From TrEMBL, chains A, B:
Gene Ontology CC, one term: cytosol
Protein name stated in the entry: Flavodoxin-like fold domain-containing protein
Keywords, alphabetical: Oxidoreductase
Family note: Belongs to the NAD(P)H dehydrogenase (quinone) family.
Presence of keyword Transmembrane: no
Residue intervals of the Flavodoxin-like fold domain: 12-198
């Protein structure tokens, strides 16, 4: 039982898409499956299925006298505690994440965080020094987005900025473009394979970092 | 009555801030006052006061078979019809607009717009070939945002991208940084003056463009 004190490595997958049968939902499931195959834990936060409320209330704004956490935010923060990796899965709509995801960041990840903390990089969010991954999809071709200056802007917003704001340990992004209705099964399977590989690589890296091995520590069987 | 067929120039101010007494609310009012002082029309869409729902539903997604407009979106589109200028007023939270504004763009401005239309620049939004203005505030200093690559990313997202996506006639942005609680009245008044000047300059430009004069056409008095 030498490793009994080690807690398992835990991922939270935050999905923001209105269609439970969407390609984004398939991506989230593929990520979850790959994490479990690597022997790590994963929880799925399907924001639409949860009917999460993305609208930040006035009393939730960080002010000098402290901030009131709403019950749904408090419950979500409890859920995220001891999470090592948070992975967002969302489509790009008009250059931005869906309001659902934006509100999750404002209300949950940013709960009570002031501008000064962000500037000082002292805003340790609910994920502590965790890892951040953003998997995004778009109906537009990646090269078209690039020509619009969008991929860089998205990298800044969906990855780097949050990474800096919450002083996380690392951030990375995987973008899948050209997602159209009636995409071929080969395109879908190829894309999901990219997601599984990315999930496996994150699992290995975090395992290495926390336990010096890409595999999770084997707990005793209690005998 | 030679100008009787000319409709008045109309602005819509879309405000997204949870505090009705916020600096953002003051900015929206200052903009509205300046438009009226220029003899043009303005409507204020205070998204929090309207309890606008920013969550795009699955049945609102543009698909090949057409799209269903929700009653609140349809009402908002009716309200925006014949608007020449839309001006967004919002704070930057964690590098993005509030979910409230993001959802307004997705559900109202983007209603039924497909990715292909955006790529082809054939997505003439509800504002037709109108003008777009984004007035943003941040608690962070402008130079700090610049160092984070944020101002460029924001220009892309809050201005250029929407401008391109909806094939609008022009877009411009005004950012007011260093907005902190207890800001001096001189700072506030100076900032509101910048807003009024910007509103007046937009009014003059649109008047010039539509009527060849920065002033609105004088309608007959009916006598």
């Amino acid at each position: 039982m030498s490793n009994a004190a080690s807690s398992p490595i835990r991922h939270a997958v935050v999905l923001a898409h209105p269609d439970p049968n969407s390609f984004n939902a398939m991506i989230a499931r593929a990520y979850c499956d790959a994490v479990e195959a690597a022997g790590q834990e994963v929880i799925l936060r399907d924001l639409y299925a949860m009917t999460f409320d993305p609208v930040l209330k006035n009393e939730e704004r960080p002010v000098r006298k402290g901030v009131t956490l709403a019950p749904d935010v408090r419950a979500e923060l409890d859920m995220l505690r001891d999470t090592n990796v948070v992975t967002f899965v969302f489509p790009i709509w008009f250059g931005m994440p869906p309001a659902m995801l934006v509100g999750y960041i404002d209300r949950v990840l940013g709960a009570g965080t002031t501008v000064r903390q962000v500037q000082d990089r002292s805003a340790e969010g609910p994920l502590g020094k965790g890892h951040l991954c953003a998997i995004t999809t778009s109906g537009a071709a990646a090269d078209w987005l690039e020509a619009q200056g969008q991929t860089e802007a998205l990298r800044e917003l969906a990855g780097t900025y949050l990474f800096r704001a919450f002083a996380m340990r690392s951030s990375e992004a995987l973008h899948i473009g050209d997602v159209v209705e009636g995409a071929s099964s080969a395109f879908i399977e190829d894309s999901l394979q990219r997601v599984r590989k990315r999930a496996a690589s994150i699992c290995a890296r975090v395992g290495q970092e926390l336990y010096g091995t890409p595999l999770p520590p084997q707990l005793g069987d209690g005998s």
